[in-house]
Automatic annotation (TrEMBL):
One of its GO terms (molecular function) is glucose 1-dehydrogenase [NAD(P)+] activity. Residues 7-188 form the Ketoreductase domain. Pfam families: adh_short_C2 (PF13561). SMART domains: PKS_KR. GO terms for biological process: steroid metabolic process. This is Glucose 1-dehydrogenase. Its EC number is 1.1.1.47. The keyword Lipid metabolism applies. InterPro entries: KR_dom, NAD(P)-bd_dom_sf, Sc_DH/Rdtase_CS, SDR_fam. Belongs to the short-chain dehydrogenases/reductases (SDR) family.
Length: 251
C-alpha cells in the first residue's frame, strides 16, 4: 500500500524537473494527480506516460481563472481534493543594479502570488474533503540570500511567511500547510543558474556534508510525506532537503 492511497493531489509546475518527479512519486504512492504547467508538450507527454491516474491542465499560477479550473478538474474527475503542492516557480539571475522592475515583478507574481492564489482557491475543496495538506515549495534561498538572486530569494522568504499565516488560518478546517526547502537539486532550472553565474556547481556541492547534488525524487519523498496522514501533526513547519548546505560555512 502507498502512503497516499485514495488521495487526490494538485501539483503546479508539474511538467518537468522537480515537479514531474512530484507527480510520479505521488502516483507511485497511490494518489491520483491533476498537474498543471505552461509547458503543454511536456505536460501531455507526462500524462500519456502515467495514464489514468493523472490529468494535465494548462495552468498559469498567476491566473485566478486557471486556478479555479485546476481545482475543478480535480473535484470533477476524481471527486475530491486532498493535497496541493505549490511547486511552480521561476528565477532570474541578475544583479540588483541591472535587474528591470518588470523582471522582479514577474518573479514575485509567479512565486508568491501563485502560491497565495493556490492556497486561497484550493482551501474550500480541501475543507470539503475533511481537511488536507498544502506543501509550498520554497528554497534554501528562503533562509539565506544569494548574489544575483534578489527577486528569487525575496519570493522564497515570502513563501515562509505565507505558509505560517495560512497554517494559523486554516488549521481549524483540518488543513495543514508546510514549506519545503530544497537546496541544490539537479534540475533544468538549477543547471541554468550554474551556467549564468559561472559558479562551479560540482565543486561547491562536493564541499557539503552530503557531498553531491540532490536528486528531484529526494525532495518528492518529503513532499509525499507532508501530503500523507503520516504528517498529521505537522503544520507551519519548514522542511529542508539540502544535503546540509545550511549547516554553516565550509571551514
Amino acid at each position: 500500500m502507498g502512503q497516499l492511497d485514495g488521495k487526490v493531489a494538485l501539483v503546479t509546475g508539474g511538467a518537468r524537473g522537480m515537479g514531474a518527479e512530484h507527480v510520479r512519486r505521488f502516483v507511485a504512492e497511490g494518489a491520483r494527480v491533476v498537474f498543471g504547467d505552461l509547458l503543454d508538450h511536456e505536460g501531455t507527454a507526462l500524462a500519456a506516460e502515467l495514464g489514468s491516474a493523472v490529468r494535465y491542465v494548462h495552468h498559469d499560477v498567476t491566473s485566478e481563472a486557471d486556478w479555479s479550473a485546476a481545482v475543478s478538474e480535480a473535484v470533477t474527475h476524481y471527486g475530491r481534493l486532498d493535497a496541493v503542492v505549490n511547486n511552480a516557480g521561476i528565477l532570474r539571475f541578475v544583479p540588483i543594479a541591472e535587474m528591470a522592475l518588470a523582471d522582479f515583478t514577474t518573479v514575485m507574481n509567479v512565486n508568491v502570488t501563485g502560491t497565495w492564489l493556490g492556497i486561497k482557491t484550493a482551501a474550500p475543496a480541501l475543507a470539503e474533503a475533511g481537511g488536507g495538506s498544502v506543501v509550498n515549495v520554497s528554497s534554501v534561498e528562503g533562509f539565506v540570500g544569494a548574489a544575483g538572486l534578489s527577486a528569487y530569494s525575496a519570493s522564497k522568504f515570502a513563501i515562509r511567511g505565507i505558509t505560517k499565516s495560512a497554517a494559523r488560518e486554516l488549521g481549524h478546517l483540518g488543513i495543514r500547510v508546510n514549506s519545503l526547502h530544497p537546496g541544490g537539486i539537479a534540475t533544468p532550472m538549477t543547471a541554468a543558474v550554474s551556467g549564468a553565474s559561472g559558479v562551479d556547481g560540482d565543486g561547491f556541492f562536493a564541499s557539503l556534508p552530503i557531498p553531491r547534488w540532490g536528486q528531484p525524487v529526494e525532495v518528492s519523498h518529503v513532499a509525499a510525506f507532508l501530503a500523507s496522514d503520516a504528517a498529521s501533526y505537522c503544520t507551519g513547519g519548514e522542511f529542508v532537503v539540502d544535503g546540509g548546505m545550511l549547516t554553516g560555512c565550509g571551514y
